[in-house]
Every structure is written in structure tokens, then in C-alpha cells.
């Protein structure tokens, strides 16, 4: 039986494995870490005495491939979402609050309703986002949208650019941001509806996938770091691990679904994006369960250090994207900074010192600049039976869960096409 060897059990590797296993293909997955999931993982924290996620991830209704993956593993019901598109924000300096509520349909009627748009900003300031449609290949989001003193820039475009592209808007690709806007805001509120894991990332995206793989006879091997490939001029024939080798038979395929530094180490002549951006997450054990307005489990923060706050029972999880300077500060200092913002946002006593955990991902994603995007490789690897997958490959999407899943599914579909030829 022809087999597919998948190197990496992050979201790209799992999406590829699930699609192939459900189609009856023999699959073997190798993961260097002790657990599957990549950056989409959960862990029990003894300091907080709670299960926390490595970081916060939010899907949108427009993320059709990620939702298809959840359907394949029977986990779509493990997401929670408001009935319509709502993105609440607060300014931690002034206490001002507003909720961005895109209206249904392609015509953005919502910008003409004061209650649905950024506070202290008019309709035409919001419509400046249309300038993304006419951006050039080398333009940044700031080139297209920045205007001095524009509240929409600080209160909408900056936070969503940094959260979606994990790159400061002065460097982030306007073309890539345009792609996102065309699939979400331009199609109306129904495509912008936010979706959040009910319990944990592992419970939603990882554990159900592993159960599906086991049910279909797929093998998943953790603590197996690939050391090198061995092959002929146009095919991989051996996979070398610390504990031995795995043969790649004629007709088998290999999918390399690792982060770009690992891919480059295994294939030195492969061009990969090298510039990255960090993300800092902080998890706070609150004195009691907290609730945000309208029951939405997240809140955008501007004017401070914290950017997004996610609530799950009595744990507040903070995310700071494009954290180029913050990531180098001591964790204790970061904890105090984000606790100050959290206390203001949730109306808690700032003098109280909660249990906290700071997690730094120094190379969370590729830097999504115009230059870096030109370095994203396609799906086909340097030899015929080797394919590439990962959010950093050229999916045409930002380096998100949707991009990772899309890359894995595309690799699976290409292998299925070849096997049926």
C-alpha cells in the first residue's frame, strides 16, 4: 500500500493527514514535540491551576477551509460565536468603549450608523479602507490607510492589521490585507462573525483530529525529529530519525509541514521567509468569573500594551502581536503591564496581584511584509514526491490557522490526484 509520510503535526500536518486518512490513504505522521498541535496547543499550568492555550486564536466565518477541517473531525460544535459580527473595543486610557458591527451584505451600511462604528470617527473615515483595493505590490497598510489624527487608524486598522498579519502596519503588506478584507468585510457581516474555541485549542483542533486518525488506522509518532532526507535525484527514499530510518517506497509521498527554519535546515537550497515576528501571550487567573458586555468572550484593547483580551471562565488571556520590543522585556515586567490594562478593561482593582503566566513565541509567524511574501515557496518541493505545507507557504493568505489548514488540504488533494491518475 502506498503511504504518505507527514513531517510535522501542527495544523497543516493534521489537516493533510485527516483529509488523506478519511480518503483511505495510509498515513504516518512524525512530530518532533511531545504533543501534536504545533502553536495550536494547550497545557495545564500549575501556577494558575488551569488549562491554558499557548496563544489565542480566533476564526472568522469566512475561514471556510478551517471550518471544513473542523467538520471532518466532528468539532465545529466546539466553537462559540455571537449571532452576528461584533468586535468590542475599549481604550484603556480614557475608558471609551465601542463595538464595530459590520452589517449583512456587500454594501457597508454599518459605517453610517454611529452605534456600529469606531467611536469619534465618521463614516468617510471608515470608507478609507476602500483604498486597499488599489494598492501596489510594495505598498504597506500604512501607505494605504494612515492619516495623522485619524481615530479609525488607531482604533481599527492598527489592531486588526497586527492581529491578522502579526506585523506592524508600517511594514505589513497592503495586498495581503486586501485579500483578507475582500473575503470578510467586503462580503458583509455574515463572513466576519468571530468564532472562538469553547474549551481549549487542543480540545477543538487537535484531540478530535488525533481521534479521527486513530479510527482510520493512521500512525502518529511524537518525539520524532527528522534529521535528514536521503534520496535519488528526483525522489526522497529514506527518512532519518535519531532512533532509525523509515523507508519511502516508490509511489509514496512525503509532506514537509514544519516551520520554515526546520524546512530550510532539512533542505538548505530551499528559499524560505526568514524574517519573523513574535507574539507575547499572558494568562491571568482572575479572582472570580468575569463577563464582557454582550457576552462576547473577547475584547480589543487600544492605548496600552495589551491588544486583545479573551475570557474563559476565570482566566483572562492577553495577546500582543508584532511584539518586537515587548518580547525582549522580562516576563515579570510584561505581566505587570498587561495586568494594568486588564484591570482597567474589567474594572478590577489594579493593586491585586493575580497569578499569571507569560508565554513568548519569538518566531510566531513570518513577517508578512511585501518583501517576505515574495519568498514564500509553493507546494511542490525540490523533488517529485516531496510537498511543502505550512501557514508560511504561498497560500495567498496570512499566516493563520486558515492558511495552515489550506496548505495541508491542498497537499492532500494533490496527492489524491496523483494516486488516482
Structure overview:
By secondary structure, this protein is α/β, with parallel strands linked by helices. It has helices spanning 11-22, 64-72, 123-127, 141-145, 151-165, 174-183, 189-192, 201-215, 260-266, 331-346, 370-373, 401-420; strands at 3-7, 26-30, 42-45, 50-53, 58-60, 79-80, 87-91, 97-100, 194-197, 219-221, 228-232, 235-241, 244-247, 253-256, 276-285, 298-302, 308-312, 315-321, 356-366, 386-388. It contains 12 helices and 20 strands.
Q: Topology, pairings included?
A:
Layout: E1 3-7, H1 11-22, E2 26-30, E3 42-45, E4 50-53, E5 58-60, H2 64-72, E6 79-80, E7 87-91, E8 97-100, H3 123-127, H4 141-145, H5 151-165, H6 174-183, H7 189-192, E9 194-197, H8 201-215, E10 219-221, E11 228-232, E12 235-241, E13 244-247, E14 253-256, H9 260-266, E15 276-285, E16 298-302, E17 308-312, E18 315-321, H10 331-346, E19 356-366, H11 370-373, E20 386-388, H12 401-420
Parallel strand pairs: 1-2, 1-14, 2-10, 7-16, 14-20
Antiparallel strand pairs: 3-4, 5-9, 6-9, 7-8, 11-12, 12-13, 15-18, 15-19, 16-17, 17-18
Helix pairs in contact: 1-8, 1-12, 2-12
Helices, by number, come to: 12
Q: Give the averaged pLDDT, no decimals.
A: 97
Globular, elongated, flat, extended or rod-shaped: what is the shape?
globular
Q: Please give the domain count.
A: 3
Q: Mind summarizing the main beta sheet?
A: 7 strands, mixed
Tags for this model:
421 residues, seven-stranded mixed sheet, 20 strands, globular, five-stranded parallel sheet, alpha/beta, single chain, Polyamine Oxidase, Chain A, domain 2, 3 domains, FAD/NAD(P)-binding domain
